[in-house]
Design a protein that fits this description.
about 300 residues; mainly alpha
Length: about 300
């Protein structure tokens, strides 16, 4: 299979998994969960499963100091903080508004890659990025009341997630085994959340069985499958292009809310889906065009 197409498939599947989980997250909130609890459990629950997978495959568990530093920076500082701030923003603004602001992260990713790594954006990628970002605005919850703490938390989650994508692309984590990365990130992120929670005590360790079951599904879908698929997608596409294909997440989230929570399907959301799909399609044709051009140049030389 073509490497670019393979990367697109991995990234879209990752986005679809990330998009479905907010439905289950909202259900667990009604059962006594919260941002601290969900962030802790979605990380710690995957560790035993991933450890068994690594041992079964006889994958070496040892990591170098460089890899450990990258795991702590990209995992704890960027990814764990993203999860916590996004979940916490739901307490101040509507889920729709928070999610919309969070999806500024493709722009952040492009800027980080451009400013820190001098990576060229390109006019086609810029057009696709602009179209997809404009499409996300149609998901904005106009009925939600503005609250600056929630707005700032959601915007900050976009910044940290953009840095997470760039870190997964530009550090040694890109070359590591995806299962191994997910396992170590789950352990370090859960440990960090546990330490942070000691003075506040917001983690609920006595969730009802159904809430724990939903949380386990969230953990498997996000901290295991989605993270591993996203890393594979970044390996084939790079962080900048992968961030654009992550725009399938709000579409998946909207469809899941409509199917399982009976949320309204407005014309604005439908238009937003069409625009996002248009931007992604533009990116697909641009990548295929560049690949054909490279192949022709290789044949001529």
């Amino acid at each position: 299979m073509n490497r670019k197409i393979r990367g697109m498939i991995w990234t879209v599947l990752s986005a679809l998994l990330f998009g479905v989980t907010p439905v289950l997250a909202s259900m667990t909130y009604d059962m006594g969960s919260n941002a601290n609890t969900l962030t802790f459990y979605r990380n710690i629950m995957v560790v035993p499963v991933l450890l068994c997978v690594l041992l079964f495959r006889k994958t070496p568990l040892r990591v170098s100091l460089r890899e450990l530093g990258a795991l702590l920076l990209v995992g704890v500082v960027f990814r764990a903080s993203t999860t916590y701030m996004l979940y916490e923003s739901y307490n101040f603004v509507g889920v729709g508004t928070a999610t919309t602001l969070h999806f500024l992260y493709p722009v952040v990713t492009a800027l980080v890659l451009r400013l820190l790594f001098r990576e060229r954006i390109g006019r086609w990628k810029l057009a696709a990025l602009t179209a997809a970002s404009c499409g996300v605005l149609f998901f904005l919850d106009r009925d939600g009341q503005a609250s600056w703490p929630g707005i700032l938390l959601a915007c900050a989650s976009a910044v940290t997630y953009g840095c997470y994508l760039a870190g997964m692309d530009k550090t040694c984590l890109r070359r590591m085994n995806p299962t191994k990365v997910a396992c170590y990130m789950g352990f370090t992120n859960a440990t960090a959340m546990l330490l942070i929670d000691i003075p506040v005590g917001k983690i609920n360790f006595a969730l009802p069985p159904l809430a724990m079951g939903y949380t386990f599904i969230i953990a498997m879908c996000t901290s295991f499958l989605a993270v591993a698929l996203l890393q594979l997608g970044i390996q084939d596409l790079g962080a900048g292009t992968a961030a654009i294909f992550c725009m399938f997440e709000p579409i998946s989230s909207m469809l899941s809310g409509w199917l399982f929570l009976h949320e309204s399907m407005t014309w604005e959301k439908i238009v937003g889906c069409v625009i996002i799909l248009g931007g992604v399609t533009l990116m697909v044709f641009s990548d295929l065009r560049n690949q054909k051009r490279a192949e022709l140049q290789a044949q001529q030389s």
